[in-house]
Amino acid sequence: MLIPTAFAKLPALESCHNNEIVFGGTVGQMANALAQLTNCKFLGEAHYHIGQQVLPAIGGMINFGYGISGSITSSNTYNILYQSTALSSHLAIIVQYRASNFELGSVYLNVSLRNTASNSYTGTILDYGMRFLEGVDLENTRDELSVAFTGTTQIEAPTNTTPEGPRPLFVPSANRGELLNIVVESSLLLPATIHVYDVLIPEVSV
Predict the structure, then answer these.
(1) Which of 8, 42, 152, 204 is at a distance of 20 to 30 A from 75, taking alpha carbons?
(2) CATH tag, 44-198
């Protein structure tokens, strides 16, 4: 059935008392409301803030980075725990970041997916994920935040064994509803926030 995303009003209270027989339009309204709750309003999401330096332009006293041209000269890995739902199949990622050193080295941002069955950091790789590349997917900015977005394309189960272009992460059916680890690897780039959303699939069979 097609799941409505707009507000769906429930039936009148007097038609929904215990032991009352309901049929027709009332049943349709209740079915639509329940489907909307389970497939739209109860979708998972997670939001992480990563503490970084405050820019002088917005009241801070510390400059953007270290080294030549104020560039970030290191790589970092962030392990983001995400509690998936039974309906989690595609995870869209939005990362706010700063990077200003395209002239010094290869700037990129990798995002992949692991399970947490044995260890949160070294669990089995479920999706080798994607890579945002400098000059293609990433902006060369210093004193303001830029945004990297995976998009929301509902891909088929991926077969790549190395990162590919930006796309949502795919959660295998066997791992839906489990606690997952989203691994964010940054090279010469500072992420500030990481946002994870279940991708809405508006049409499902029930």
Answers:
(1) 152
(2) 2.60.120
Instruction: Of 201, 200, 191, give the one whose Cα is nearest residue 94.
Output: 191
Radius of gyration of the chain (CA): 22
What residues contact residue 84 under an 8 Å CB cut-off, 6+ apart? Answer: 44, 91, 171, 175, 176, 177, 178, 179, 180, 198
Residues of the chain within CATH 2.60.120 domain(s) are: 44-198
57: which strand partners?
Answer: none
Partners of 32 in the β-ladder: none
Q: Would you write out the chain's pLDDT as a tens digit for each of its 206 residues?
A: 566 666 666 677 776 777 777 777 777 777 777 777 776 667 889 999 987 665 555 554 445 444 444 445 568 899 999 999 888 999 999 999 887 767 667 889 999 999 998 777 888 999 999 999 988 898 877 667 889 999 999 899 999 999 999 999 999 999 999 999 999 999 888 888 999 999 977 665 55
Residue labelled with tokens 């970092």: 76
Q: How far is CA 102 from CA 73, 110, 139, 184, 188, in A?
A: 11, 16, 9, 19, 9
